[in-house]
Amino acid sequence: MRILVVEDDIVTQGFIKKGLTEQGYQVDVASDGQDALFQALEGDYQLIILDRMLPKLDGMTVLNTLRSAQKTLPVLILSALDSVDERVKGLREGGDDYLVKPFAFAELLARVEILIRRQPMAAVQQSTLLQVSDLKMDLLTRQVWRAGREISLQPKEFQILRYLMEHPKQVVTRTLLFEAVWDYDFDPQTNVIDVHVARLRKKVETDDLPPILETIRGVGYRLVEKATS
Amino acid sequence: MAVAFFVLYQLSVGEISRSYQQQIQLITQQQRLFNQQMNEDEYLLQFTSQAKQVNNLVLAYENAHETYGNLSRLPTSLATCPAQTTFFVDSANDLRFYIGCITTLTHGRLLVAFDDENLYFLQTQFLRAGILALLLTLGLGLLSGRYLSTQLLSRIKNINDTAKVIQSGDLGARVTVSHRKDEFDLLANYINRMLNQLEDSFHAVSGVTDAIAHDLRTPLGRLRLRLESHLNTLDEAPINESQLQEMLEELDHILTTFSAMLELSRLEHKQTDSHFDTVNINQIAEDVIDLIQPLTQDKQQTLSFIATAQPHIKGDKTLIFRAMFNTLENACKYTGSGGAIELITTTSGFIVKDNGPGIPDEFKDKALQRLFRLESSRTSPGYGLGFPLIKAIAHFHQGKLELQDNHPGLQVDVTLNTRHQGNGLIGTETSD
Asked: Which GO terms describe its molecular function (chain A) (predicted)?
C-alpha cells in the first residue's frame, strides 16, 4: 500500500509519514504542488493525503488536474479551512474525505484506512449478510445475532453496528460514526456518540460472551475480528 | 467672441461708415442737379453757403479760375466717384484724414469727402474697448475657473486626506460633509456610511479576536504550567501515560473552544443566505431526538415532542439541527434526573421547555453572551458558547432566540424565520 503525503509543513509531514510507516504503509512525500502533481501522475499510489495550501500549485488545482487526467484514486484533503462551505467545496471538486487541521493522528489513520479499503468493500456490499467474528447482520430483515442469539436493536444502534461491521478491525472515530449514521456534516463535540455506543455494547456484549467492541481511548471504536475469551 | 465683436463692429462703426458714404452720394447727386439747373454764378453762391453749413463733411468746387468751399485746392490724385480715396488735409497745422471722391460737373470738378479721423477714432476706441472686454472676460473666466477648480480640488482633497488618515490606522476618520447637499456631499455620505460599516465589522472582528485570545490564554497557561512542572520533576517522576492523556485532552478542549468561537464569529458575521433549502423541521427534530434520547434516558428524563402540522421551512438543515440539538442538550444537562423536557416544532422554529432550575431573570440576557456561564453551571463541562451559537443560528435565519420562565424551568423559543410567524400545533407524538 503506497500513500503520497503532500504537506508543506515539514514537521507535520514528518509525523504523518512516521505514523503511517509504523502502520505498515509505504509513504512518499511531496512539499509543493508541482512535485505532488508530478509524483501523483507518475507513481502508483493507493491514496493521496493532500494539503490545500501549498507552494507553487495549490491543493485544489492539484486535485482538479488529477481528476481531469482520469486519476480516480482516493484523495483525503487536509486543510486549516474548516467552514462548511470549504468542506463542501473540497468534496465537490473531487476529494473523497476532508480533515480539518489540527487533527488527531488517530482520526487521520481511521479515515485513511476507510478510504483505502473502500473499493473492495463496495464489492462485499453486494452481500446482504454481514459477519464479523460471531456477530451476524442481515441487512434485508434488519436482524442481528451474536453467537446465534438474536439481539434487538434500535434503528440508530443498528446503523452504528452496521457501519462498524462494514469496517471491521478498523478504528472508527466518533466523528466518522456521527457523519455516517446521522448524515449531518459537523462535529457534535459531545459524548453523545459514546452514550449510543455504550448502549449498543450493552446489547452485543453480554457477560457470557467475550468483548467484541473495543474502545480506543480518545479516538473511537473498533470491532475486533476474533473475540478473545 | 470674435463673431460677437464682428457683428458689433458691423452694427456700429460699419453703420456709421456706410451712412457717411450715403451722405457723400446724396450730396454729390444734389450738387450735380444744382449744377445742371443753375448758371455758374447762381451755383457758386449756392455751393458756398452749402459748404459752410455741412458738418463732418468737406465740400470743394474748382472751376477754371478758382477753388470754392472748404479746401484751398483740390488734391490731384483723387478717384472719380463712386470709388473713394483717402487723402490728407493740412488745416491750421493739423493733418487730418479724409475719404472722398471727385465728380466732374459742367464747368468744374466737385469734391465731397468726410472726415475719416472721427471714424478712425471710433474704430480705435471700439478696438480698444473690444480688447479690453476680451481681456476682462478672459481674466474673469480664468479667475472663476481657478476659483471653481480650487473649490472642487479642495473637496476632493478632503476625501483624499480622510483616506490617508484611515490608511494610517485611524478608522474613526470621516469625510467632512458640507451643507450644500450636492453630488460631493452625496459621495461623502456614501463613503462615510461605508466607513461606518467597515469600522463596525473591524471592531467586531477585533473584539472576537480579543475574546478568543483572552479565553484561550487561561487554558493555554494551565497547560504550559503543567508541562513545565513535568519537565522540572522529570528525574523524580517520569511522565506517565495518563498524565500525557490528560494534557492531550486539555489541548483538545482548547482546540474545540477555539474552533467553536471561530465558527460562532463566522456565523455572526455571515450574510443571511438567500438560497436556503426547504427543510422539514419535524424530520430534523426526529433526528435530534434520535441522537439525544440516550442522554435523557440515562437521566430518566421524559422527552416529549409536539410536531407542527406545517413543518416545511426555509433554512440550513445542519444549522437548524445544531441549534435544536444544543438547546435540547442544554435542557438535558441542567434539568435534574426525572425531569421533563418538551420539544415543540412550530411553523417558524421550535420551542424547548424543561422543568429544571431555569435561569434567573437578571441573568437571562447575560446567558446569551459568549463565554458566560452561571456560577452553578461551572462544574459541568461546557464552553459557554451554547446559547450564543443558537442565537447566531437564529439570526442567520432572520429569527431570534428568547429565554422565558417555564414556572418552573426554562423555556427557549427559537424563531428561525420571522416572516412565517405562527403557531400551528397540531398532532402530538410522545416518545419515551
From this structure: phosphorelay response regulator activity; transcription cis-regulatory region binding
Strand A129-132 relative to strand A135-138, pairing: antiparallel
Q: What is the pLDDT of residues B311-354, one digit of tens each?
A: 888 888 888 998 999 899 889 988 888 899 999 999 889 999 99
Q: Which amino acid is at B191?
A: I
With a cut of 0.85, is the ipTM above it?
no
**Length of chain B measured in residues:** 432
Residues B209 and B307 placed together within one structural domain of the fold: no
The reply to whether residue B291 touches residue A102, judged by beta carbons under 8 angstroms, is no
SS3 A193: helix
- Asked whether B185 and B178 are in contact (CB, 8 A), the reply is yes
Range of the domain at B117: 2-122
The shortest CB-CB distance from B248 to any of A84, A182, A218 is to A218
User: How many structural domains is chain B composed of?
Assistant: 3
Residue A36 corresponds to which cell in the numbers above? 505532488
**String of b and e for A158-181 (b: at least 16 CB within 10 Å)?**
bbbbbbbbbbbebbbbbbbbbbbb
Residue with cell 486535485: A63
- CB-based contact A185 B318, cutoff 8 Å: yes
Asked whether the bond before B82 is cis by omega within 30 degrees of 0, the reply is: yes
Number of C-beta neighbours around residue B291 at 10 A:
25
Q: Where a domain ends, among B268, B287, B307? A: B268
Partner A, chain B 278-317, Cβ-Cβ below 8 Å? 287, 290-292, 294-295, 298, 317
**Where do the domains of chain A lie, and which CATH numbers do they carry?**
2-116 (3.40.50.2300), 124-223 (1.10.10.10)
Digit-coded pLDDT (tens) for B197-256: 888 778 777 777 777 777 778 778 888 888 888 888 888 888 888 888 888 888 888 888
- pTM summary value: 0.62
